[in-house]
Amino acid sequence: MSVVAKEIRCSHCNAPVEFKSGEIVTTCKYCGFTTVIQTGQAFNFDHSLILNNYNTAQMENCIHAWMSNGFMKPNDLSKKSKIIENNLVYLPFWIVSAVVTTKYTGIFERISPPITKDGLIEKEYNWLILARNATVFPTREYRVPLTGKIPYDFRKIEGSAKVLNSEIGKDEALDVAKQQIENHHRFLLQQNVDRVVDMSTELELKQMVYLHAPLWFVKYQYKNNMYQLIIDGSTGTVLKGDIPSMRL
User: Fold this and answer.
1) CA torsion angle for 216, 168, 150, 85 (degrees, to 10)?
2) Is omega for the bond preceding 113 within 30 degrees of 0, making it cis?
3) Burial code of 18-38, b = ≥16 C-beta within 10 A, e = fewer?
4) Distance CA 64, CA 61 (A)
5) pTM for this prediction
6) Does residue 100 fall inside a structural domain?
7) CB 210 within 8 A of CB 25
8) Distance CA 70, CA 64 (A)
9) How far is the C-alpha of 41 from the C-alpha of 19, rounded, in Å?
10) Which range marks the domain in which residue 147 is found?
């Protein structure tokens, strides 16, 4: 089912701003002004941009370099593959910068008799939340190059690129980050205890940044089968890559 695009007027320059159903933050492609769709008010959070460092030809070189290196790939993968699609998309993310502390009590059962252990996990995160619903993306594998971020500048985005808007607001992103970090700390606890008796997690929020980052979405064909790649447009790193079976 197709998604219907709607239009509002930019409150800064009055140009038409197109957005799709479900998106709650949009940015004017004429002046770069970011607006909260429901209220029409200015977006009062840090909106940043990671620059893309590859054109189409350079990205194809990255793709073929990935095909030619590494284990478990057919020897002729680069030579016999055909790139079907190679699209640059700027995806929206929330970056939750926080210090998170988890206090716990648990039972260590790997010795006899078992013992009760109290402990503390304290870590600082720049936790990444994809600001889109129902989108498959390897968020945990993506290390956003935050040192390269600049204030959002629509003039630095390629005209051929697709820019997606946020479908998740600040509060929802923060709630999701809290839950994901708590689950991560619960996983870390398995190194220290076998059974958790009590656990409490506190998040000290330092900053939240709304950010657009360049990702290349690639489809290639090898021996009549289709495969996909997702590549970081800032570094050229393959975040996710389908590898054909060597038995083909």
Assistant:
1) 10
2) yes
3) ebeeebbbbbbbeebbbbbbe
4) 5
5) 0.81
6) yes
7) yes
8) 12
9) 15
10) 45-241
For residue 214, is it within any domain? yes
**Number of domains the chain contains:** 1
Per-residue pLDDT of the chain (248 residues; tens, 9 = 90+): 344 456 667 767 777 776 666 666 777 777 766 766 554 444 456 789 999 999 999 999 999 999 999 888 999 999 999 999 999 999 999 999 999 999 999 999 989 999 999 999 999 999 999 999 867 788 888 888 888 899 998 889 999 999 998 898 889 999 999 999 999 999 999 999 999 999 999 999 999 999 999 999 999 999 999 999 999 999 999 999 999 987 75
Cα(160)–Cα(236) distance, rounded to whole angstroms? 18
Contact of 63 with 221, CB cutoff 8 Å: no
Task: Please give the C-alpha separations between residue 141 and each of 94, 144, 231, in angstroms, as whole numbers.
Answer: 15, 9, 11
